[in-house]
Amino acid sequence: MPFGIGVDFGGTKVLAGVVDLDSGDVVGSAKKRTNPSDNADQMMKRIVGVIESALGKANMSAAETEGIGIGLAGQIDTKRGILLGAPNLSQSTVNLPMADLLGKRFDVPVRLRNDVQVGAIGEAKFGAGRDQPDFVCVFVGTGIGGAIVRGGELVTGAAGSAGEIGHMVIDANGRLCGCGGRGHLEAYASRTAITKAILGEIKRGRKSALVDLIGDSDSSEPGGTAIRSGVLIKALEAGDELTEDILHEAAVYLGYGLASVINLLNPTRIILGGGVVEAIERIPRIAERTARRESLATPEKAVSIVTSGLGDNAGVVGAALLGRV
């Protein structure tokens, strides 16, 4: 029975799992919070630590696996296994040879790829992308990432970054995105964007149940972590108007982005995932309604819009498959 190690390195957490590559089952997992201020050495120690913990829970050694795969939100040189850079990580991680460093530490093959591309690999094999030769994954979390599968193959593009829907321009000269560009979808519909919008309204004096729920939070906290999904859910349950308004706005913007994807790529399926989509049920519902209203009639009729079949494990499972020899 073959096993692989998958690592999903996100804006708020790094999750590692030992995965049965025949079934997609995660037999041991571990996670730690991400610290975007980590330097390269600290980040690598964090990744090594969660891998070792996951192996311990699975009662296995790295030598008993076929390899390690890592999905990370950023620009990746997949051939050389180098992290070229990521907007939510420190500058010391630029041009970091992650595959080489982990390969020397665990003595197994290591492969590296963009996190949502890795999630698409998992969804194609064991999730909502099974038997779907043409689909697009859109994952909403700290940022917004995307991946394209065409004819059963992952579309990577000339530089390996195809599918970056989060950096699609939806509002010329609009909000500043974390990458430095303006008007990008990520600046309107990610958890970071939601957090900034809510805290901005509170500072302007708008009343909200969130004032008591979050205390003295700061929108500059990395990864949009000042307001977590659980807090947003509590505010919704309390009927908080501000939370409802901001989440509705974010979902509508996400729908605009999806409409452009439908019109441009004409996929048979769009798979929505990520922490925000998983936690807040109304986000995918409103986004789908908006996307169908704003897209062209012919491609709209041909597309199904669903949520991830693997949920939080999509990245880990896909990464483990990526690391398979």
Question: What report would you give on this structure?
Answer:
The chain has 325 residues and is α/β, with parallel strands linked by helices. It has two domains: 3-122 and 313-322, Nucleotidyltransferase, domain 5 (2-Layer Sandwich); 131-308, ATPase, nucleotide binding domain (Nucleotidyltransferase, domain 5, 2-Layer Sandwich), CATH 3.30.420.40. It is built from twelve helices and twelve strands. The chain has helices spanning 40-58, 98-106, 115-126, 186-189, 191-203, 210-214, 229-237, 241-265, 275-279, 282-294, 297-302, 314-322; strands at residues 3-9, 13-20, 26-33, 68-72, 75-77, 82-85, 110-114, 135-140, 144-150, 153-155, 269-273, 304-307. The chain has a five-stranded mixed sheet. Helix 3 (115-126) packs across helix 12. It is globular and about 55 Å long. The mean pLDDT is 91.
